[in-house]
């Protein structure tokens, strides 16, 4: 793979063969050294083949080997002449992260009280294999409402507050959604999974704000040192997975029919203006709304858990949404760069929107400081809150990184965890872990991930986000 | 047992080898179940007939595993053993199978990982002098 250094944090994969644009990878020297022979770089080049791709096939510093797109990939395609590719979104449509802040301080929790909260979360939020809570059974009409209205559906049902919606990307609902584009199989597979975490890298984590880097921005986000926060990482569950599965089949045929040549079938795509492209966009938006509703329902479960554990009624608890970001999504967005307006379909596959101060899409309360960008790390170290920048808006279609990125394959992580007691090791560091499967804990142990601080260092040096706060884990539930 | 787990940084795959095409599809089912839990612990009390069609032999393997994933998520049953027949050529392939399995129970089936989807990435179904082989990556 040919690579040219652009500057301190950026590398160019020059255009060759049938690539329509160049590739640009954000990485430090050390990261690039490790990446040099990784299939992820070829995937950046492959994405550059998509018809109508604008400027460059981009990759964030948490880039790693995916299928089709690399994880950490960003590609914007022209609204009129470009394509939409389900591979640029992934199966877990609108997998994302939500951060809640509380009025509790770390000092309010002794070990017993912390365990009580984590156990309560584990009881409230279904994890691992299986469906949702018995007290949340959806009728067909309910599911239509979820697919159409997203998080607002849950709020209307009393699972949250109206003010929550103001702090969500897109207000927690994509307007292009059409419930009729979601197949009966997708409904059957995912309809019972609303309000469930799933497994793998999904989690709900009780944290403390360990460090503030920018007082002014942190204040706007409502974050102070020592404060207890909760982070939720989950997506659209079986419903979204099936929507992607269903539509990929049509896309494989569509790509052939439209004469689109691609180096990887997983990049199958169709013109945004074609029937296949429109159907997928409508179905994907509906699945994205399911994910917004899923994180909203789990927010309610978190409030319920804190209420039970602390003996305070939900209405008197202060558990507020800081923000909710999508990191597997394709959205129609408008950019104004150098006075030129450009409408594009931005695919973010393991990447986060990072809009700048002053942007109309940034919630009013954060308008002056920029959009919160939520970057989970691993369960033993830390996560970050960043803020979007003008440079991201101009350079990366308003995008930044989404997490640490895996270092070890799941098999290798399990081999290294053999004979160790990861849960006890974390307990010694004061972190309470509860999981449905012990294999998940081994695969997800801290050493399986890169140090998210390195990723954050690159995006902040590159100017595509700024550091606001560091959050450290206190308790984690996993699937 | 003629499957092996393929390492992929974020996801996981299986490589299957079998003497016949029919065995390849049945063993792929076993490999799929083994990604989710320990296949040896899955009983055979549930039986089900399957029919799957696709526009290519490799696409048939994806469709087959997608069907098993769909049944698992909607009924909770994993089907690692059984008999299959595969017919077709060119762009028209079909599989009929009668599979046996058991409902997943977290108490007796330790969850390794939940599969989200069967991908087309690096998908391979081929025949060589040693028999049939397939390679498939799951999104997890």
The Cα radius of gyration of chain B reads 14 Å
Structural class determined from secondary elements of chain B: alpha+beta
Average pLDDT of chain A, to the nearest integer?
95
Distance between the first and last residues' Cα of chain B: 23 Å
The CATH superfamily of chain B appears as Archease domain
Q: SS-based structural class of chain A?
A: alpha+beta
Layout of helices and strands:
The complex is a heterodimer of chains A (479) and B (140).
Chain A: E1 4-5, E2 10-13, E3 22-26, H1 29-35, H2 39-47, E4 56-64, E5 71-78, E6 83-84, E7 96-105, H3 111-124, H4 140-149, H5 151-156, H6 162-165, H7 184-190, E8 203-212, H8 215-221, E9 227-234, H9 237-257, E10 270-271, H10 275-310, E11 319-326, E12 328-337, E13 340-349, E14 352-353, E15 372-375, E16 383-387, H11 390-395, E17 399-400, H12 410-417, H13 422-428, E18 432-435, H14 438-443, H15 452-462, E19 466-478
Parallel strand pairs in A: 3-4, 18-19
Antiparallel strand pairs in A: 1-2, 2-3, 4-5, 5-13, 6-10, 7-9, 7-11, 8-9, 8-19, 12-13, 14-17, 15-16, 16-19
Helix pairs in contact in A: 3-10, 4-10, 7-9, 9-10
Chain B: E1 3-7, E2 12-18, H1 21-36, E3 46-54, H2 57-75, E4 77-89, E5 92-103, E6 117-118, E7 124-128, E8 131-139
Antiparallel strand pairs in B: 1-2, 2-8, 3-5, 4-5, 6-8, 7-8
Helix pairs in contact in B: 1-2
């Amino acid at each position: 793979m040919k690579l040219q250094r652009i500057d301190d944090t950026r590398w160019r994969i020059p255009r060759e063969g049938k690539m329509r644009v160049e590739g640009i990878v954000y990485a430090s020297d050390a990261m690039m050294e490790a990446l040099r022979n990784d299939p992820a770089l070829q995937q950046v080049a492959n994405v550059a083949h998509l018809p109508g791709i604008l400027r460059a096939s981009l990759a964030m510093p948490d880039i790693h080997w995916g299928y089709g797109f690399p994880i950490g990939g960003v590609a914007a395609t022209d609204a009129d002449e470009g394509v939409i590719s389900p591979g640029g979104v992934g199966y877990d449509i609108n997998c994302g992260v939500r951060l809640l802040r509380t009025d509790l301080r770390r000092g309010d929790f002794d070990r017993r009280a912390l365990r009580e909260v984590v156990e309560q979360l584990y009881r409230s939020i279904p994890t691992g294999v299986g469906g949702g809570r018995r007290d949340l059974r959806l009728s067909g009409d309910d599911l239509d409402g979820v697919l159409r209205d997203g998080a607002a559906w849950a709020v209307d049902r009393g699972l949250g507050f109206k003010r929550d919606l103001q702090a969500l990307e897109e207000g927690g609902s994509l307007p292009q959604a059409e419930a009729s584009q979601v197949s009966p199989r997708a409904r059957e597979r995912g309809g019972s999974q609303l309000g469930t975490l799933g497994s793998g890298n999904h989690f709900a984590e009780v944290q403390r704000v360990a460090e503030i880097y920018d007082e002014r921005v942190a204040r706007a986000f409502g974050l102070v040192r020592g404060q207890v926060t909760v982070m939720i990482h989950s997506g659209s569950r079986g419903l979204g997975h099936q929507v992607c599965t269903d539509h990929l089949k049509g896309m494989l045929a569509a790509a052939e029919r439209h004469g689109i040549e691609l180096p990887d079938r997983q990049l199958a795509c169709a013109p945004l203006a074609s029937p296949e492209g429109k159907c997928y966009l409508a179905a994907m938006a509906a699945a994205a709304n399911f994910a917004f509703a899923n994180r909203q329902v789990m927010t309610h479960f978190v409030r319920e858990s804190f209420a039970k554990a602390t003996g305070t009624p939900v209405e008197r608890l202060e558990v507020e949404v800081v923000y909710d970001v999508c990191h597997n999504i394709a959205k129609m967005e408008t950019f104004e760069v150098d006075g030129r307006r450009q409408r594009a379909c931005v695919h973010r596959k393991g990447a986060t929107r990072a809009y700048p101060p002053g942007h109309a899409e940034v919630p009013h309360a954060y308008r002056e400081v920029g959009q919160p960008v939520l970057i989970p790390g691993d369960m033993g170290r830390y996560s970050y809150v960043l803020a979007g920048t003008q440079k991201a808006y101009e350079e990366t279609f308003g995008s930044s990184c989404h997490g640490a990125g895996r270092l070890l394959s799941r098999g290798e992580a399990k081999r290294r965890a053999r004979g160790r007691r990861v849960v006890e090791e974390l307990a010694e560091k004061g972190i309470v872990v509860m999981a449905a499967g012990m294999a998940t804990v081994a695969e997800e142990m801290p050493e399986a991930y890169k140090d998210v601080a390195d990723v954050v260092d690159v995006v902040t040096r590159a100017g595509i986000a700024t550091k606001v706060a560091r959050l450290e884990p206190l308790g984690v539930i996993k699937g | 047992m003629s499957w092996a787990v393929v390492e992929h940084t974020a996801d996981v795959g299986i490589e299957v080898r079998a003497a016949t095409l029919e065995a390849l599809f049945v063993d792929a089912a076993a490999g799929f179940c083994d990604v989710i839990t320990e296949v040896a612990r899955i009983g055979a009390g549930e039986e089900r007939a399957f029919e799957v069609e696709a526009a290519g032999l490799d696409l048939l393997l994806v469709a087959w595993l997608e069907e098993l994933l769909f049944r698992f998520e909607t009924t909770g049953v994993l089907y690692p053993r059984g008999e299959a027949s595969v017919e077709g050529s060119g762009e028209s392939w079909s599989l009929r199978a009668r599979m046996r399995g058991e409902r997943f129970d977290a108490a007796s089936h330790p969850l390794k990982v939940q599969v989200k989807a069967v991908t087309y990435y690096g998908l391979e179904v081929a025949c060589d002098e040693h028999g049939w082989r397939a390679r498939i990556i799951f999104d997890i």
